[in-house]
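Teaching assistant here, posting this on the class forum so everyone can see the example we discussed in section. The complex has four components, and the goal was to see what a joint structure prediction looks like when all of them are supplied at once.
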Amino acid sequence: MPKIPVGVLGATGAVGQRFVELLVDHPWFELTALTASDASAGKRYGDACRWLLSADMPASVADMVVQETAPGVECAIVFSALPGDRAGEVEEAFAAAGYGVFSNASAHRQDVDVPLLIPEVNPDHLALLEVQRARRGWKRGFIVTNPNCTAVMLTMALAPLHAAFGLKAVLVTTMQGLSGAGYPGVPSLDALDNVIPYIGGEEDKVASEPRKMLGRLVDGAIQYADFVISPHCNRVSTREGHLETVSVSFRQKATLEEVVAAWRAWSPLPQQLNLPTAPHPPLIVRSEPDRPQTRLDRDAGKGMAVTIGRVRPCEVLDVKFVLLGHNTIRGAAGASILNAELMKAQGWFDR
Amino acid sequence: MPKIPVGVLGATGAVGQRFVELLVDHPWFELTALTASDASAGKRYGDACRWLLSADMPASVADMVVQETAPGVECAIVFSALPGDRAGEVEEAFAAAGYGVFSNASAHRQDVDVPLLIPEVNPDHLALLEVQRARRGWKRGFIVTNPNCTAVMLTMALAPLHAAFGLKAVLVTTMQGLSGAGYPGVPSLDALDNVIPYIGGEEDKVASEPRKMLGRLVDGAIQYADFVISPHCNRVSTREGHLETVSVSFRQKATLEEVVAAWRAWSPLPQQLNLPTAPHPPLIVRSEPDRPQTRLDRDAGKGMAVTIGRVRPCEVLDVKFVLLGHNTIRGAAGASILNAELMKAQGWFDR
Amino acid sequence: MPKIPVGVLGATGAVGQRFVELLVDHPWFELTALTASDASAGKRYGDACRWLLSADMPASVADMVVQETAPGVECAIVFSALPGDRAGEVEEAFAAAGYGVFSNASAHRQDVDVPLLIPEVNPDHLALLEVQRARRGWKRGFIVTNPNCTAVMLTMALAPLHAAFGLKAVLVTTMQGLSGAGYPGVPSLDALDNVIPYIGGEEDKVASEPRKMLGRLVDGAIQYADFVISPHCNRVSTREGHLETVSVSFRQKATLEEVVAAWRAWSPLPQQLNLPTAPHPPLIVRSEPDRPQTRLDRDAGKGMAVTIGRVRPCEVLDVKFVLLGHNTIRGAAGASILNAELMKAQGWFDR
Amino acid sequence: MPKIPVGVLGATGAVGQRFVELLVDHPWFELTALTASDASAGKRYGDACRWLLSADMPASVADMVVQETAPGVECAIVFSALPGDRAGEVEEAFAAAGYGVFSNASAHRQDVDVPLLIPEVNPDHLALLEVQRARRGWKRGFIVTNPNCTAVMLTMALAPLHAAFGLKAVLVTTMQGLSGAGYPGVPSLDALDNVIPYIGGEEDKVASEPRKMLGRLVDGAIQYADFVISPHCNRVSTREGHLETVSVSFRQKATLEEVVAAWRAWSPLPQQLNLPTAPHPPLIVRSEPDRPQTRLDRDAGKGMAVTIGRVRPCEVLDVKFVLLGHNTIRGAAGASILNAELMKAQGWFDR
């Protein structure tokens, strides 16, 4: 079976590099195009890019020539790591030109006709693409978004609980790694020996995106799930990994054992389909008193699993726990690639 | 007026050193005795102690000879920085021998006849000492404790709110500095690039101590305040400073403006008495979107003030905010010294 | 005696803030002008400046209005914290307009008619100002520079050794703090868990500046001192403080005791004149096996002293040791202010 | 071909864990025994060991039962990660009992009849084992040591230069990662925002070990190489990786090009034999101005390669450069395993 040619928009940034790393040996996709700002267009990727990841830049991409970020690049699918303020228009232009757009940007996440997708959570929301194409007059192209890095992990932990017990309220405090701010991102003088209890725009996304993803698709529109989320978002001095302390209340009573059982029993579609990037299991529930820890657990499931621990009763709501996920893999590039894998497995690209 | 001679029990540890630093030039107290484990007894303090603080060890204490930790040392008051498991018996022995004991240890905090004191919050709880002396048959000696480092800051922020609006529920997530674990404490391999979402015993203290301090003294006993606290305690890689994200609900509705006004109007006893270590104001409310930050705000009020910021509505409870305090000053040694200053100002040592 | 009115050029940057902090309560100087880039001109300093220092911004300066960086500001002396590429022309314009310019920038350090000054080391080089004024046609104005942050500490440690034994060769490896790169400076993703063995332009400065300062003024020109310096400059993840490992060889044999004695006996002019910012002693020689350490010793002498330790024979050259100094105080703003204090004490501003 | 059964002595410590990780899927060796202190003996390895590495503990070892550290364990070879003070006697007991002992401890490194081995550098020193067995009366057993973590990388970079140009003097300053001190090792309060310019015993090892390894075996004894090394050893706040700045002088003149060519041309025995753990190439010479960096280069060659950069003339000696290696892989467990691979390839275990 020939691989599907794919491109990365904004390939030189922190998330763009993760896309490149995860796509370079992908069994289904072949990386054929890299785009960046006009200043980088025309250069070798190896020259245009200040490589940030621990593993060396794959040799096969170093010699690829960076192109302008505009339709015309040779591929069928583009993964967008564009900055939020540029992504909106550019992604529409690509979709209009017939590309399948998998976007990590926030620009279109709240559009009523754009799926905000976690394959484990709401694969049925892909049906929105019919609405999208009809409304926007797109024949082949489309836009599918993945959620905010903090919202992904949270939503994955909440999904089986919402299904089993019905969520009423969620209170979450995050301790987010530095890579979430991109590069150069947080100055070291702000990061060292410090916690910054504020990340611009983050709390709005965390309060809203999980409710869209856990919502129901009714008559071509998403009905947001009926519960409230209160986030406190903080930047701490870790490289990668978002750790979250979570308290939840349910509509229906649930023991701690039932909560853990709901997580352990969760076997969603990507795992059933054995998608290449899907972690097994998607949720890891640990019983040690001091896990998950950022450094020890962020790479679980090659960065695609969410680790949960310290499940205990909450004095104010019903249950509390800690969760952790890798913000640039499950929280960004890996999420987007898994979205594309799901659509590929469902035959969207055969049509 | 002659100064009161004071000693520090456990003077070589991390908190013991803070006691020494804060007492060495104190206007009311004179540091006349330093004790440590038997292994250190007989040595110069300068030799027995691995000094951890940024400012050099005060020259005047370096030559003091460390004594065994047992009654008989020359002073009227002792400040106890003993480890939790040793503090219980030793502190009782000192009190029985007639010393005023100001303890930073947790051993006696929950004793029914021991005041758990923040001078700004519950100075009236000192009346418990009558009960204590009667029960234990102590003539002159007594034990007064200060709360857990995380509980102090939280209780100070809650006190004016509880007085004005009545607390119903408090949900708090902490990001606690490394010095809270003492020395050697947290191994650097666990601290670097990591968050540890667990601190042994901490959550129990934070769930309980504020309720004792905000309780009422009725007929010689403390009635714990009638609200619930749910803590999530985390260790992050900062040297000093505990940052806490807090959501609260009230019995009586309160606007954000009323909440801020309650904090700003708070003018408790230590500030009225102008105690040497009392910060002016005790609570600093900041309006920037990204404050308090650990590094920038922990030294406010010479480490004795609590800084509050990001006051906003909570989607789940009523109001949420961020607070920060210095864990080894306001959260430990400074707290204990302020306790002693209050009793001195109230004439307890004149009798 | 009325204070001399002074201004800070580039007052909103990392070094500019240190100037402000050190000048705000200065006994001889009164801070009357703050300048910054055109974008900040006209704003309150408190609004224009992202304050980086631990102590809060002094209230008295927060309301000062930032001015454009051009002659016309109301003061007699300006301290320049301008970036290297802007400093050259602007400082000349100020000097031509009659201001005394004390520059922390590198632009004029190697000019043949500009003193590169450490008051403890080469106060006689101020005589170059006669040459400078004659050559440039300046009546009252002048430019005096202070050295690169790494070169200051090194030169202070070398000065008594060069005087006593004659230097032949110096091999130095530096571990420099993050604040040396300014703000935003080093991205946290580059700093965390990393050492960067390169600082652009730094090694050239360290190889050359000490030789100018330890040179002799002969017939109106500096003859560079006749020894060689080989620097390896590294950026490590500390906030403030430059630590340097140094090996030296001498023209004349010297025992370790003689080396230490030379440092201990050093009593240069600023200490004799008791200049307000001069540390007593300027060099602190410690005998512990593991000192100086960055965090414990950088604030020695209020950040103006240099701490030396681990003095021992070098297997390759003659003697080796470790030194440490505070890069934004002794290495930048404090150095410049001490220069101005020396000239004030010598009556230069009375003329 | 059946695998050789091997054991790890001191398997629960930081280096012991690296041994386990590297041996668990080894093509030639089968991990059959794990030993630790008596307190751990009898427990499951998964329970006895606080696992420190990012990758999870291999499932196959978690259920192995930890044994006492004494001869009798079922294997032919033992890798020793014992602490220095225990290693001496225990390793001799194992060798006397017929085990091949590959030791990472310093106890026997300077014994005249014990090879201090880097397979790329001095494979011929294995001939010392004849002397060792004769002297000690051992039939089958033996002790082979690998060098100090800092000395390994340095010696690998020096070996081709010594062969080509003859070393005269080496001056090295190290910036060593925290894992080098084991676990719990360096307290976080000492590591954060600090450099410690002292590591007990380290400088003696670095000054001596490379000279043994680069020495010649003459008449059954090692003649140490005739050059001097002056080390300055520092602990910095990185997790893994030792970075070293090096200045060298040669007996014979060499251009920078010739130096680089000597490194690039180096093709030692382990690479020729294609030993499983041998990196290709063993030395990586980079041309970027700011490499190697600790975080970016420590994992090169799966942690077994040494990366060199910033090759330039030295103002004091002849040439200077920066090198970096992974201290717990190439500097400890990996080094020891490569030693065993060499002996296996040379047929030592067939006899």
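For the discussion questions: The two ends of chain B are 15 Å apart (CA to CA). The longest strand of chain B covers residues 167-176. Think about how each of these relates to the inputs above.
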